[in-house]
């Protein structure tokens, strides 16, 4: 049986189910209890689990992030709520120097099973410090797993897997998707990491898209279908680990690829995936692999400017048409 | 030397031996560096032995500690063995961290050591989180967070002290004030008093002579007991002294401290010599017995060095092991990054 629920509700259900199943799981972060976060994602949890397991903290991101690392090293399973993805810069030492490296530096003796839930996504008119999509920065660090759910279905299944994982996992939720609905099973399910979803099958071009960019790719694919271009959409679901095989198999079939992610384009997720396609499926390609990330500028406030910085369906469709026609996007 | 005689002979003997073991470990580590047999460099704990031993002797194996870049002393005091420690120092497979951590991350995890940390102040969150875990899981272990005076300049400490005080967590912040923040006198980096900083959060703060193992142990024993009753957190400033430079390569240090000052601490305030004298005065051990203990430990350390020098390095296949728990080899897992 399935029913339609919001992305936000899916996250809430995943946490509630795992907290019922495992008493070592707790939630920690700013305004996670009575307030249920500014996005109301966690509403109702404190009523069920109490303030001992749904812990409101002072505005001290490095402090509670570090405490989550220590709690994880001593048989607890904390879920850290980082109110905005932009605040990752505040917790970098605890996340990247401590959580990510503890298992390795201890020769495998200490484990850090924690989940860092945070968000991403521009076009909410929140300017440069509340709009960033910083998944590439985290994905760069060995020892961290990174999940990017693209709908309520993925949000629930990936979060439950993350909570049960024995490693630090960072989940980026697109804050513009919290009210989006999708069909979600009533029965329990988990989505394993490292298994991409072939969202739509196609013949002519592969669109690899993460998080909300899957919606962008779907819209683009609809437009392309009207022009007789059949686009295949791959949602990696986790970028660490990355299901390279599913992506490469698709590109071997279609011979063309555009990679879409809302992080900055340079040195980003799109660059990494495009490089792997170029290295490993080069002789199957009929066109250069195209990266479509966010523009390499801080996110501007003005709607007239902000909307220019993110990949759009029409932009994806335009690029797809060109490379399917054999045109070069950049001078040779 | 405080003269409480609250312990039995066995306890005194163990405290003395543990301090001598730390000194012996460090003397050998220094020699390994000077003879170019050790990769990298290391930060010597010599001079501060009464701090690690006084505190760790008040803890059980279930109690946790977090350690620092100057962490060999904590590691020994929390129950580690010489062989696996020297193997770690030399990057050998039998090291406590399979050679992946080295001097700055050395820890015997099975005795509750959550790791030595090479970021100054980097473990303050971890220690406080371990204390939160104890409360969350309903367990009665206490966590001691070791850090130096230099780490009191890190903002993280104030964030976690605030939360520890709000939530009455069973954590003891143990600041080893050895007078120097790397190459700078502490008075040049610390305004006001350190105890006042903890007190500002409503945390009871104590100062103790860090060269007096019994004073350290008595205070810690009381505070650990109070932590277990839910009366934590606590702060202790332990006045101590670092015999060597910031690290083994910091040899010409006249520009920040005098040889006279070093000589005075070593001759008048050495924690091992002074405790040895007290043991003699109290007729707990004779001078001959003390010498015998020293020699036995020295021989044990030298044998462990020899063992570690001859021990094998990790197999090269281990380079991408232990990146993720539950994953044998990270590169295969990450999507065939080997190509």
Describe the structure.
The complex is a heterodimer of chains A (332) and B (339). Chain A has 332 residues and is α/β, with parallel strands linked by helices. Helices cover 35% and strands 20% of the residues of chain A. In chain A, the strands form three sheets. Chain A has a seven-stranded mixed sheet, with helices on both faces. In chain A, strand 6 (145-147), helix 6 and strand 7 form a beta-alpha-beta unit. The longest helix of chain A is centred in the first third of the chain and has 15 residues, at 7-21. By secondary structure, chain B is α/β, with parallel strands linked by helices. Chain B has one domain: Rossmann fold (3-Layer(aba) Sandwich). Chain B contains 13 helices and eight strands. Chain B has helices at residues 9-34, 49-56, 72-77, 82-89, 124-137, 155-166, 186-189, 194-199, 213-228, 259-268, 271-281, 287-310, 330-333; strands at 64-68, 113-117, 143-148, 171-177, 180-181, 184-185, 204-209, 234-239. In chain B, the strands form two sheets. In chain B, strands 2-1-3-4-8-7 form a six-stranded parallel sheet, sandwiched between helices. In chain B, strands 5-6 form a two-stranded antiparallel sheet. In chain B, helix 1 (9-34) packs across helix 2 (49-56), helix 1 (9-34) crosses helix 12 (287-310) and helix 4 packs across helix 12. The chains are: A alpha/beta (332), B alpha/beta (339). The interface between A and B is large, with 54 and 53 residues. Chain B: This is Pyruvate dehydrogenase E1 component alpha subunit. Chain B: It catalyses: N(6)-[(R)-lipoyl]-L-lysyl-[protein] + pyruvate + H(+) = N(6)-[(R)-S(8)-acetyldihydrolipoyl]-L-lysyl-[protein] + CO2. Chain B: GO terms for molecular function: pyruvate dehydrogenase (acetyl-transferring) activity.
Question: Which features does this protein show?
Answer:
heterodimer, A: 332 residues, alpha/beta, Rossmann fold, 7-stranded mixed sheet, 5-stranded mixed sheet, 11 helices, 20% strand, B: 339 residues, two-stranded antiparallel ribbon, 13 helices, globular
